[in-house]
Amino acid sequence: MGEKKLRGRFAPSPSGRMHLGNLFTALLAWLSVRAAGGAMVLRIEDLDPERCTRERAETLADDLEWLGLDWDEGFRRGGPHGPYLQSQRSEWYAECFRRLEEQGLVYPCFCTRAERLAASAPHRADGQAIYGGRCRDLSEAERTERAKTRRPAWRVRVPEGDMSFEDGHMGRYTEDLARDCGDFIIRRSDGVYAYQLAVTADDGAMAIDQVVRGMDLLDSTPRQLYLYHLLDLPAPRFWHVPLLCAEDGRRLSKRDGDLDMGALRGRYRPEELLGKLAHLAGQTPGDGPISLAELRAVFDWEKVPKDDIVVHTGKF
Length: 316
Ligand code: GLU
Known about the structure:
The strands form 5 sheets. The protein has a 3-stranded parallel beta sheet, covered by helices on one side. Strands 4-5-8 form a 3-stranded antiparallel beta sheet. A two-stranded antiparallel sheet has the order 6-7. About 35% of the residues lie in helices and about 15% in strands. The longest helix is centred in the first third of the chain and has 16 residues, at about 20-35. The N and C termini lie far apart (about 50 Å). β1 (about 5-10), α1 and β2 form a beta-alpha-beta unit. α7 packs across α8 (about 220-230). By secondary structure, it is α/β, with parallel strands linked by helices. It has helices at about 20-35, 55-65, 90-100, 115-120, 140-145, 175-180, 195-205, 220-230, 260-265, 270-280, 290-300, and strands at about 5-10, 40, 75, 105-110, 155, 160-165, 170-175, 185, 210-215, 235-240, 245, 310.
């Protein structure tokens, strides 16, 4: 029997056109898997019906194809672990939700956003509130009473104590979920399953071994590892990569319209854009054109920077 092939994934949210930052992460995810001869999966994370449309998912897949970042399984291709759109996978999330409920770990939270912010003195580095546990120990009677006027969100209880993992690129990362995060939401009050639950349920079910994604998700990882453990799903190894920033230190985002794929495709050929991305990723001394095949042959994680990368937006 041959050795099991490494499985990686792209898991973009089609909430707008991809921009340089998304592309940078996608390229590293692809290179890391392809350089190791692995398989790639494309899963569309379109849980938020307000922001994500089918049309945007199609454009996203077109943009990846234009650049040559191909995938073996997933959106447009199908495969044994489908469907590959999160909007079609709620039965699986409901099943995972039930498994957590059966362990007595899920409770309804009636806090409004304003209450949550007011009740949580400290904030995480990324500005998210640390949940203080206001609704954790409500009695059944109190829950019934509050449910008359408000649809609750659902939280999972977290344990106290340090949780650590070894990031493939960034090294050891440690968090105490109770102190640094608090019980977190796994289903929103509008019924939509939360990112933390869905991404864990899916990477687990799709047998993903390697997750390469932006540094902004490093501190989601302990929550996800906790869910893998509770759901008894196999956890992937995580590799977090630096974010691209503008000169003022602000993270590049969908607001930088001149760096989105619509604009970039008008300015560059795929190999020119790849050359620039590869240079930002520390893979090549210059930023001239390069093919994916050439890049795959030289790809080296050791050369990928660890700090945020400044992009001279006006000159790109
Ligand atoms: N869907 C998330 C995003 O587009 C990425 C999720 C992940 O890589 O875990 O930001």
